[in-house]
Structures are given as structure tokens and as C-alpha cells.
Amino acid sequence: MDSLLDRLASFLEGLPVPAWRAFERIGSTNDEALRWAEAGAADWSLVLAEEQTAGRGRHGRKWHTPPGAALAVSLILRPRPAERRWPARLTALAALALYQVLRNMAPTLPAGIKWPNDVLINGKKVAGVLVETLWEADFPQAFVVGMGVNVRKASCPPLHEQAFPATTLEDEMPAPPGRGPLLRAWLEAMIAWRERLADPAFLTAWQEALLWREALLEVESGDQTLIGRWLALEEDGRLRLQTLDGHIHLLPFGEVRLRALASDS
Ligand code: ATP
Ligand code: BTN
């Protein structure tokens, strides 16, 4: 198998990644990154694996990562003031960076971000982002930004594991990128956008990349299900939704599951 690990150093050359740990197989790159952050890893340290046996999505849901077919990567970021203030923007940062990289490679690709943490192509999930925090008392010591991208066909989870339709870059792009160049391009975009995380331009770019802005949405939030329309994105990443009875709801980032009832994409 063509291992990404053998050539990782060349794909990271010249980037401000001070150190990395790369594994043929691991439980979860996010778990490794959290442990490493606790042991003092520097800003932009990176963990990557060819296969995850306990890859995680939100709420402990399983993230399928078979060997050699996906990008499974976690970055350790030491908090900056804007990131402490708006941690949700780090999820957006990773998703937006990937979205822009894919659109640069294929400008007409029907891609977008499904708020809050997934990248879709043709309405199917191709990537997910999971940001976790290492706390010391009430202070975040590090953020771990984990991203999984389905690159080759073999990375697609079996149908019975898809709570939402899934796809891969190989299925959706005539010339899908290799995992190494994709990783590098994503990191470059992350580095550039991180500098602008607090700018209004960041919120605008994020908003423009979001799918379903015109759609009727079904939202599961805790034990309630709401049906309404997207009105706006708040500065802190919450979604402003107007339900059919006219009420405005601010949906907390992170605890919500979204479906489009009548989609615009
Ligand atoms: P949903 O994706 O159902 O809207 P969600 O965004 O909260 O909900 P996550 O926790 O973000 O879901 O992602 C985990 C879910 O993604 C799993 O329950 C599974 O259905 C799906 N999944 C797992 N592995 C992959 C993968 N490699 N590609 C696409 N989807 C996956
Ligand atoms: C989601 O859609 O819920 C997010 C999925 C995040 C998966 C990535 S793969 C690399 C990192 N390690 C994990 O265990 N999860 C993230």
C-alpha cells in the first residue's frame, strides 16, 4: 500500500508544524493529540494515522477510518484570545479550509458545509470535524482540531453505519487529490485563515460556505425537534432559526443535529 507516512515529512516541509506523530494504526488521533497536548506539545503539532480503530465523531459516535484510504488528522492549537472567545470558530476554520481547498481544485464542485461540522459534496458527507478541548480548571490549555476526510472509495462507511449519506472524494471528483497534497493544502488554508479568525471576513466566508440557507430545516436539539428556517449565523457560531410559529431560536453550537426537509442543494 502507498503509505502516506513514508512521505509525510516532504508534505509538511516549510510549514510551521514543529513536530508530528504518525501511526499506521491508532485508536483515535484526537485522543493521542489530547494526551500529547497534556504532555506539552507545541502549537501546530500534528497527529496523523493511516487507520483508526476508535475514530470518534460528536457525542462519541463512531467515525469510520479503514487503512490507507482517508485523511485522519488532529492538530494541537494553543489557544489565542479570539479562539478562547469563539471556540466554535475552530470547527468552522477546519471545515472552511477544506471547503476552499476542494473548490480551488474543482471550482464547480457542489460542496458546502453542513452546520456545524461536516463538509458535504452533492448532499453527502465527505468529511467531519471534531474539536476537543484540554482544560485546566476553567481555562482551555489546548484545542485539538480533528478532521477526517474520505479520500478513496474504500473510506466510505458501509450503508448501515451511515446515519447520513456518505461519499468520498474519489466518487465525487474527476481528479481527486492524493492525501499528501490534500493535507498540505488544508494546512496552508488553516494557517492563513487562523490569522483572520476574528475578522468579519471570516464570518462572511463561513456563512457563504454553509448549505441549506434557503431550506426548511428539521433540527434535533436535546429532546426537542424544531422545524424552521435559517436566519443567520451568530458571531459565536450559533444558528439563528425561525420556527414556523414565528419564534426565534438560537441553536447552541455542538448539541444539534440538522436535516434539510426541502433542500436548496
Ligand atoms: P449526522 O451526520 O447524522 O447529521 P452528526 O453530524 O452529529 O449527525 P457526527 O457525530 O458529526 O454526526 O458524525 C458521526 C456520524 O457520521 C456517524 O454516526 C456515522 O453515521 C457517520 N460516519 C461515520 N464515519 C463516517 C465517514 N467516514 N464518512 C461519513 N460519515 C461517517
Ligand atoms: C463528525 O463528523 O462527527 C466528526 C468526525 C471527526 C473525525 C476525525 S478523524 C481524525 C480525528 N480523530 C477522531 O477520532 N475523530 C477526528
Brief summary of the model shown:
The N and C termini lie far apart (36 Å). This protein is α+β, with helices and mostly antiparallel strands. Helix content is 26%, strand content 31%.
Shape: globular
The percent range for helix content is: 25-40%
Number of domains: 2
**Strands side by side in the biggest sheet:** 1-2-3-7-6-5-4
| Number of helical elements | 7
Instruction: Give the overall average pLDDT.
Output: 95
Low-confidence stretches: none
- The Cα radius of gyration reads 18 Å
- Taking the alpha carbons of the first and last residues, their distance comes to 36 Å
What is the third-level CATH name, the topology of the largest domain? BirA Bifunctional Protein, domain 2
Largest sheet: 7 strands, mixed
Q: How large is the share of residues in beta strands?
A: 25-35%
Bound molecules: adenosine-5'-triphosphate, biotin
Q: Which architecture of the largest domain does the CATH hierarchy give at level 2?
A: 2-Layer Sandwich
Give a count of the beta strands, DSSP E runs of length 2 or more. 12
SSE pattern:
HEHEEHHEEEEHHHEEEEE
Structural class: alpha+beta
The CATH superfamily of the largest domain bears the name Bira Bifunctional Protein, Domain 2
CATH class of the largest domain: Alpha Beta
Topology at a glance:
Elements: H1 8-12, E1 20-23, H2 29-38, E2 45-49, E3 70-77, H3 81-85, H4 88-105, E4 111-114, E5 118-121, E6 124-136, E7 139-150, H5 169-172, H6 179-194, H7 200-209, E8 216-221, E9 224-233, E10 239-243, E11 248-251, E12 256-262
Parallel strand pairs: 1-2
Antiparallel strand pairs: 2-3, 3-7, 4-5, 5-6, 6-7, 8-9, 8-12, 9-10, 10-11
Helix pairs in contact: 4-6
Biotin (BTN) binds at residues 28-30, 52, 55-58, 63, 72-74, 117-118, 128-130, 146-148.
